[in-house]
Design a protein that fits this description.
The chain is mainly α. The relative contact order is 0.14. The protein contains twelve helices and two strands. About 5% of the residues have low confidence.
Length: about 300
């Protein structure tokens, strides 16, 4: 029977899942509805991030609840379920890195940017992000998991209860997944934003007129996208620090563990709210979707 902490955790996961699905569907719809945004590389990557966040609500959170001991399956099936969560995290990290690289090219080579970074190439990069995310997240399926755990011994009559900690190796989660596949890309992304702001500041000091307005707009958008990265780091670092503690054989209270998991999932529900307040074009698209056209026209008239 589930404890009170587990029941509260499950209820909160359901609420976060609903928020993830609704909010990120709105982001995808807003970009798709606006042809101009759909053709811009940056918004291609934002859609990729929104798809990953939507799938967190639609797939990862239900799976996270199931692998908390609510389902019985074979060891291999349990590893597959757990790997889905890793794949979606990788897709988010890769999308954030692609967004930063796109903004870097926009500032570093503004005159050649439109010719070099096309929508077709951007969608190709999006596809590459998802392919690499699937490959990196599927490493446990190749053997880097706890197949020999006593709790996950294969039994055809009574399949073991599927639990994340019983089938996922903490050495994989700490050294490969966190240090290699999450922390390193995040540091690269942060370095790109640091260089972006350095370039913008330097060029604002030397250029005027239209060029100055261009770099001011770029700085504003870069600040908004950097904020998305900072939120990602703040939401995901706690659960990875908890994994490090577990790997070091430290006792972690279940409330702390569940809080870390909830915080990591909540990040996917927060991004659509950030876009509402920080990205004017998406905010306008939200308004166009949620408000009837005649009401928008009436407001603009007055």
């Amino acid at each position: 029977m589930a404890s009170k902490v587990e029941l509260v955790y499950t209820v909160l996961e359901v609420l976060i899942a609903v928020a993830c699905c609704l909010g990120n569907l709105l982001v995808i719809w807003a970009v798709w509805k606006c042809g101009a945004m759909r053709r811009q590389p940056t918004f291609c990557f934002i859609v990729s991030l929104a798809v990953a966040d939507f799938l967190v609500g639609a797939v990862a959170i239900p799976v996270a609840v199931l692998v908390n001991g609510w389902v019985r399956t074979s060891v291999h099936g349990c590893v597959v379920l757990c790997s889905l969560v890793i794949v979606l995290t990788q897709a988010s990290v890769h999308s954030l890195l692609a967004i930063a690289l796109d903004r870097f090219l926009r500032v570093y080579i503004p005159l050649r940017y439109r010719k070099l970074v096309t929508a077709k190439r951007s969608w190709g990069v999006v596809g590459g992000c998802w392919i690499t995310a699937c490959l990196l997240g599927s490493v446990p399926l190749l053997g880097w998991s706890l197949h020999t755990s006593q709790n996950t011994t294969i039994n055809s009559t009574h399949p073991p209860t599927c639990k994340f900690m019983d089938v996922m190796s903490m050495s994989y989660m700490v050294f490969f997944n966190f240090l290699g596949c999450i922390l390193l890309p995040m540091l690269c992304t942060a370095a790109l934003y640091a260089y972006i702001f350095h370039l913008i500041r330097r060029r604002l000091q030397s250029w005027n007129g239209e060029s100055s307005a261009f770099y001011q707009r770029e700085r504003s958008l870069a600040c908004s996208l950097l904020f998305v990265l900072v939120l990602f780091a703040l939401c995901w670092l706690p659960i990875h620090l908890i994994n490090i503690a577990i790997y070091a054989n430290k006792d972690v209270h279940e409330t702390v563990l569940y809080t870390g998991i909830l915080l990591s999932h909540a990040n996917s529900a927060v991004n659509p709210v950030v876009y509402t307040f920080k990205v004017p074009r998406i905010k306008k698209a939200y308004r166009d979707i949620c408000m009837p056209s005649w009401l928008v026209a009436d407001r603009e008239h007055h």
